[in-house]
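Q: Got a minute? One more chain.
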Amino acid sequence: KYDGVRLLWSLLKSPNPQVQSSAAWAICPCIDNNKDAGEMVRSLVGGLELIVSLLKSDNREVLASICSAVANIAKDEQNLAVLTDHGVVPILSKLVVAHAGDDYVKGHIADAIGRCCIWGNNRKEFGARDVVKAPREVSQNQKTHLFTKLQLWLFSIYLWNLRIV
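A: Always. Here it is, folded:
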């Protein structure tokens, strides 16, 4: 049923960062435009664990594309719960600091964080990891600025985070 997506997902296992990022970018519209996207992603055994592990890449294009994929995957609560169990929050928190000066990657990180804030205590955990402090700088990139606004709004829902903002 999802053979094309399975093929793309298998390309994420490639050691070549260009192949990984291209596969992740190609997966995003497949998730975004599929009414059964949550089920489709869950049917890919080990897929969510692979996505989270790719957030540890040193390649900025891989990070941007995987963060975009995380943002799309996280629209489904069950998938977001699994991403959270695989440690997406601490990894995204580290990425915020590591890529604070890179508007391109930072915009995709902010989008992923904004989507991940919806689940359980993620919002609180991001605040505890001082992720709230990082996005306060105004970005010249309009997309990054928009995602940063979303991220700050979602942080503010957990009142303890407002002490930092």
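A: Residues 2 and 40 are 7 Å apart (CA to CA).
Q: Perfect, thanks.
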